[in-house]
Design goal:
Order of helices and strands: HEHEHEHEHEHEHHHE
CATH architecture: 3-Layer(aba) Sandwich
Helix content: 40-55%
CATH topology: Rossmann fold
Shape: globular
CATH superfamily: NAD(P)-binding Rossmann-like Domain
Structural class: alpha/beta
Number of helices: 9
Strand order of the largest sheet: 3-2-1-4-5-6-7
Distance between the termini: 39 Å
Radius of gyration: 18 Å
Mean pLDDT: 96
Strand content: 15-25%
Length: about 260
């Protein structure tokens, strides 16, 4: 491996990925493990499928099962992580929820549920790891998962749009304060991906066609499309990239 390609190696690094049991989170876990990282996957449900895929390829994976809506979730994650590693080097804030509803009908409960996980949890888990990284002076990498709705308003998802707009803002704000500590804070904004979150959209023939008509690449994205961006932002190759949100969208925003 030469000096250039070695920039993308994650050997001897440990990555913590939330929402690791399916979809984009699972894909990111697979990518980071393939690049050499030991991956700790956080989810409410079993990550067995993720684990099997990684271990089949010779990678390292361990799951941390926790309900992220619980007030003690961050403490639980950090406590469980210490059983597997002395240090977390990479954090991927992928876990999130979406509730579809006309804006006129949104309840306080639904608004709070979406923003608690998609926004508040992202900030405070990042803060918890940054405290450790600043104390040990070794830096770290934070990758937040934003959205096309970090840029746009969307339809029938006002709470989700608010939360993902906040994710982009938080990414910039934290980068401004933590870059001096060698902590890189960046984000990925996936386009329209074939995951559980978009099942309803893809099953609606008219809506799906309208979406595909706007995507220059002419297809829905897949978790595999996230591999390169995740490895880049987790690795030394992005050491001078701070506060940026990278769109992986098949060209959607270019339209």
């Amino acid at each position: 491996m030469n000096a250039i390609t070695n920039l993308f190696s994650l050997t001897n690094k440990t990555a913590l990925v939330t929402g690791a049991n399916t979809g984009l989170g699972q894909g990111i876990c697979i990518a980071l493990a393939a690049s050499g990282a030991k991956v700790l996957g956080v989810a409410r449900r079993s990550c067995q499928e993720t684990s099997l895929k990684i271990e089949k390829s010779g990678g390292s994976f361990a799951e941390i099962l926790v309900d992220l809506s619980e007030p003690s979730a961050i403490d639980t994650i950090l406590c469980e992580a210490r059983k597997h590693t002395e240090r977390i080097d990479i954090l991927v804030n992928n876990a999130g929820i979406i509730k579809r509803c006309d804006a006129i009908d949104v309840t306080y409960e639904d608004w709070n549920a979406v923003n608690e996980l998609n926004e508040r949890f992202v900030f405070f888990l990042s803060q918890a790891l940054a405290k450790q990284w600043i104390a040990d002076g070794c830096g770290g990498k934070i990758i937040n998962i934003a959205s096309m709705l970090s840029y746009q308003g969307g339809i029938r998802v006002p709470a989700y749009t608010a939360s993902k707009s906040a994710v982009m803002g938080i990414t910039k704000a934290l980068a401004n304060e933590w870059a001096k500590y060698n902590i890189n804070v960046n984000a990925i904004a996936p386009g329209y991906m074939a995951t559980n979150n978009t099942a309803n959209l893809r099953s609606d023939a008219d809506r799906s066609e309208a979406i595909l008509d706007r995507i220059p690449a002419g297809r829905w994205g897949t978790p595999e499309d996230m591999y390169g961006a995740a490895i880049f932002l987790a690795s030394d190759a992005s050491s001078y990239v701070n506060g940026f949100t990278l769109a992986v969208d098949g060209g959607w925003l270019a339209r």
